[in-house]
Specification:
single chain, mainly alpha, 7 helices
Length: 166
């Protein structure tokens, strides 16, 4: 019997969108990739800007990474399943559009066309491109610092509670 939701390898990242990506991994039941429905009630200009934002910030690459990680976790858990199954699944049963259609209305809710144009101007600048290029490293390193900080904070709280008689 196959158990669902195997342990997924951790991936440190500062990109919170990865969480949204993981929630979008609903496979298509058809073998082909039917056109995904357009984002609900989002102006086409704004939708195009959001799509460009997701592209320049590597959100779609993170989608691909998460699909690969999830499939890889299942492949390790179920080694009897041939590799061709996973190749086919990634190629024919996952779509970036699933992510785009789910997150576009969220971005549209909080950001205007002008906001998106300004944000894109930054991310398409040399500094913005560098930021995107080092984002994974920043996330990994700052995540490690944050874990140590939290551990130290917990130790200090427990020590102070003990000193105060609690």
């Amino acid at each position: 019997m196959i158990r669902f939701f195997p342990s997924i390898p951790p991936r440190a990242s500062a990109f919170a969108l990865v969480l949204a990506v993981a929630s979008c991994l609903v496979p298509s039941v058809a073998q082909d990739k039917p056109a995904a429905p357009a984002p609900a009630a989002v102006d086409p200009e704004k939708a195009a800007l959001i799509d460009r934002f997701l592209e320049v910030t590597n959100a779609y690459r993170f989608y691909d990474d998460i699909v690969g990680q999830v499939c890889g976790a299942y492949a390790k858990r179920f080694p009897q399943i041939e590799k061709d199954f996973w190749t086919d699944f990634k190629k024919n049963h996952t779509r970036r559009e699933d992510l785009f259609n789910q997150v576009t209305p969220i971005y549209a809710k909080y950001l205007s066309v002008e906001d998106l144009k300004s944000i894109l101007a930054f991310f398409e600048s040399p500094s913005g491109k560098k930021y995107v290029a080092v984002l994974a490293d920043l996330g990994r390193e700052t995540g490690a610092v944050a874990q140590e900080f939290e551990k130290d904070l917990n130790t200090r709280i427990l020590k102070r509670l003990k000193e105060a008689g609690y």
